[in-house]
Specification:
Number of strands: 13
Shape: elongated
Number of helices: 12
Distance between the termini: 52 Å
Order of helices and strands: HEEEEHHHHHEEEEEEHHEEHEHHH
Strand order of the largest sheet: 9-11-10-12-13
Radius of gyration: 24 Å
Strand content: 15-25%
Mean pLDDT: 85
Structural class: alpha+beta
Low-confidence stretches: none
Protein name: CHC2 zinc finger
Largest sheet: 5 strands, mixed
CATH class of the largest domain: Alpha Beta
Organism: Acetoanaerobium noterae
CATH architecture of the largest domain: 3-Layer(aba) Sandwich
Helix content: 25-40%
Length: 354
């Protein structure tokens, strides 16, 4: 990443006729604050951060640059071209995959087996990796502590090319002093886009999951239970969480029947409601109908009842979602189906369909 923050400040000073002070140590004054406008701010040109002592506004060089040059201009000028030219995402992904398999720390692999329920085939198919304590991207000069000790998930486009890498913090893998249960994408490649977990141009339905972990497990479940159904079903997830809607998600994008399987929590419900408004082809599948207690997502369901029964439940939830407004007779038929499942499928699992 571009590191000569002093040069950026001098550029802004020249472009906007803003006075600056001489550098003392690693700090200089810049006589403009994005909030109170006229008061000067102190800038640390080593870290690229600033503070205004009048209004207490803090920020980084990107914030300051965009406030003067326009939103997104810092990314366009100083990040995008540099990252696209320098980083080989396939190479980095391969290094992360290798680290997962060869690391003396077996906790990351056990996490993928036991908590995420992935098979070796799934881990290899989706090129899942591990960034250890010694992880470093040699082409970048900044220190990226937030990317260390994370499980990594590549982000794929429709062609199967890697367009970004997601770094996920995990308890017992990420040290407690750094753990904030956060997910990071590589800077410069966009944070809100679509991860095409499974894509074929001839699909006749689309399933959306809230994040990569659930979407990847759903892909595994479909492959293991009904290959023909799998081949006709696209699976995607947004890369910036349940509340995000990637720019390409418009009415034309959802041109085939679409079902959303988001988490059974406030954020998941809100995200589904927002997406549901985009197109008449979209329906919400409520996992709350088959989850109990503190369970909230598709992985919880698979952990509870196994892959085969989870596959059948996905089909049921899709049917319920598609037919939720088709009339009393259909609802009676579906309710009878649910009661039948309650008597058979769930009798050993202390679960019930609402």
């Amino acid at each position: 990443m571009f590191k000569d923050y002093k040069a950026i400040i001098e550029e802004l000073s020249l472009n906007h006729n803003i006075k600056t002070s001489k550098v003392i140590g690693n700090e200089m004054d810049f006589y403009y604050c994005p909030s109170c406008i006229e008061h000067q701010i102190d800038i640390n040109i080593e870290k690229g951060v600033f503070k205004c002592h009048r209004c207490s506004r803090t920020g980084n060089i990107k914030d300051l640059y965009d406030s003067l040059e326009g939103e997104g201009e810092y990314y366009r000028k100083y990040i995008k071209d540099s990252f696209n030219l320098k980083l080989d995402l396939e190479k980095i992904t391969y290094q992360l995959q290798t680290n997962l398999r060869k690391s003396r720390n077996k906790v990351p692999l056990q996490y993928l087996y036991n908590y995420r329920l992935y098979t070796d085939e799934t881990i290899e198919l989706f090129k899942i990796g591990y960034a250890g304590e010694d992880f470093k991207i040699t082409e970048l000069s900044e220190k990226h502590y937030h990317l260390k000790n994370c499980i990594t998930f590549p982000i794929f486009n429709k062609s199967g090319e890697i367009i970004n890498i997601k770094f996920k913090q995990v308890q017992k893998i990420t040290p407690d002093k750094y753990f904030k249960n956060k997910v990071f994408n590589l800077s410069g490649y966009g944070s809100s886009t679509t991860n095409y977990i499974h894509y074929t141009a001839n699909a006749d339905k689309l399933w959306i999951f809230e994040g990569e972990p659930d979407g990847i497990l759903a892909n595994q479940v479909l492959i293991n239970n009904n290959l023909d159904f799998y081949k006709s079903t696209n699976i995607i997830s947004p890369t910036a969480g349940a509340s995000s809607i990637p720019r390409e998600w418009n009415e034309d994008y959802f041109n085939i029947p679409t079902t959303i399987f988001y988490d059974n929590d406030f954020t998941g419900h809100r995200g589904m409601s927002k997406i549901n408004q985009i197109s008449a082809n979209i329906r919400q599948a409520n996992l709350e109908n088959v989850l109990v207690n503190k369970e909230k997502d598709f992985t919880d369901l698979v952990r509870k009842v196994g892959e085969e029964r989870s596959f059948k439940l996905l089909l049921l939830l899709e049917t319920l979602a598609i037919n939720e407004n088709k009339g009393v007779d259909m609802l009676k038929e579906l309710n009878a189906f649910k009661e039948s499942l309650n008597r058979t499928l769930f009798k050993d699992f202390n679960m019930t369909l609402i």
